[in-house]
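Let us practice reading a record.
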Amino acid sequence: MDAPTVIGSTLTSEQLATFLSETGNNFAAVDFGELPYDHLRIWYNTSYSGVIEIMHSLLDSAYYNRKMELTDSLQLNATFKVLPASAKNPSVVSVIFVLVFCVYVSEGLNFPPVYAAVSAVRERVSQARLQQRLMGVLDVYYWLANFLFDFAVLLPVAILFLLITLFAAKGLRDAVLAMTVEILLFGWACLPLCYWMSFPYKSASTAENGLLNMMMIPMLLSAVVSSLFSFVPFLQDYETFFSTLFYLVPGYALFDSFKRVGTIFPILAQYGAATPNAWGWDYCGKALVFMAVEGFLFFFCVIFFERKSWVKTGKVTFDATPYAPGDDDVRAEIDRVRAGAKDAAVTVNGVWKVYPGTKKAPAVEACRDVTFAVNEGDCFGLIGPNGAGKTSILSILMGTLGYNQGACGVQGHAIPEDILGAYKVLGYCPQFDVLFDFMTTYECLYFYGMVKGIPEPMLDGVVSTCLRCLGLEQHRDKNTKDLSGGNKRRLCVAIAFMGNPKVVIMDEPSTGLDPVSRRKLWNIIKTSSKARSFLLTTHLMEEADALCNRIAIMVNGQIQCIGSGQHLKTKFGEGYTLDFKLENDEAKMKAFLEMIAKEAGAFETREIHGCHAILVLPNQKPLSFLFRFMEEAREEYKIVDYTLSQTTLDQVFLQFAKNQKEEMPTMTQAELMKTQ
């Protein structure tokens, strides 16, 4: 049934009631409860294209009559405006356009926060974040600096919307301005949300895909579900609840408010009707309030949960029976540490780290009652096969991994209780280069010096001294990405020395270096070791032997032996290796072997080819005696050439490493956070 012909006339309440009874379901009712007269109800034809104009006119007339207290006969004036043929059914085309526009804008604005969080993941994985923490950058300052930088990406979009207000219709200017504020608040809420959600990821590539899905899919799903409220009657009772719940997703809050404004305000402005308040709760107000609160909430979660993930101590049930070492040197080290070890720069006392088991794998003991101390001025080497627990010990000392039992500290600062105090005396050289490609060598050192707290008047002199001492003066103005591998490692060592730390932790300091660069790096470490203590891990026994005055070998999470390199070779070595060659005389060869057995003791034959032999001699006799014996026999037995060497540290290491169990399975950051 068409609308009644009442153009230019009045319609009494009785006439309206009669008309409504005849039209049946073609008409719908809308309550305007926010008006002072909450019993007011406007009826309108749902199929009529000019419904907005009718509602507006009826509402104005009814509200006016009520205000004038015309209670005997309520009269409603209805003015009908015929729309152009092209706009007879604007709802389908315009609504679809608005929805598509809102989806594109909302989804597109998700990209900057996601890639900002991916950058944070990249810094964490490369240990650049750890380096900054060790230099003294507090978590709140780090994330605030990231936020301010990343937030600037959204400013051009906001400026674009502000420019639109200059050309927008008068009735749309407030709406566009409110939408501009919404974009800014979207960045305020979405950036810390992405930061928080990035914690479980251990690579930038997986973080990029994962975060995009985690931001976009919930927004799209909530938008689809919310649209069902208009078509499924029984869901309409839950519309308020779900709408409020979906507003916890910043992308949906932005989408929904844009949709509300975009589907109503342009039509009202086109026909000169008064537009509602764009800042009202039903339009932009709800989204503004939600996103403003969410920004504070998500930022708090970032700071709180990052702190927990860095130093949380795990709670795992395990057999904590004290380790009873078989080596007397290890027992002496345990007694020394537990007695106080007053001269120690670093102490690790009875530390246990156990990763809980899963349905697929049993619990793994990374460290089992590990105890040792690094003395002042020592270079202490911690070596062992993969999975032995070296990296776990370093991570515990740097506060990035919790432990289940024990105690450790650096320069009297307990970890993790006083981790910030420990950072003031710690320097760190990671296994892989942690450098900013866009900075020069000078700028990189200057940056870390500022972060470390070196006074600015002294900073230039300190940086110049570092460059000179490490042989980097000629590379002062080069971008770090253009440096050779050896120079990059030297720069990383220089960063570790910034602020003159009392203790320097070095993880595989010569990884990837050629022999010449490696020797240069060793010389730098040796020169600087007089002023500080070093704790390093390495897979190169030659490096450990050259740099460390004390070495500990870890196997299966336990320290098996400890002492100087020479002490370990003497104590655990198989003897001496004798490689010699005689002139072609097999009779002389047989006689000489008998003489060696008589003078040096029973030997092990490694290799014999004619008059060439490689023997392993027992260490019953000193090395000086064996050299003298070979020189005296040179003429008699026609010795062409020989070499006599002591058992190497490599051989000692292999002797212990053969007992290492299967390497500890790699755990993701998410798994690690769950297990700690």
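A brief commentary: The two ends are 70 Å apart (CA to CA).
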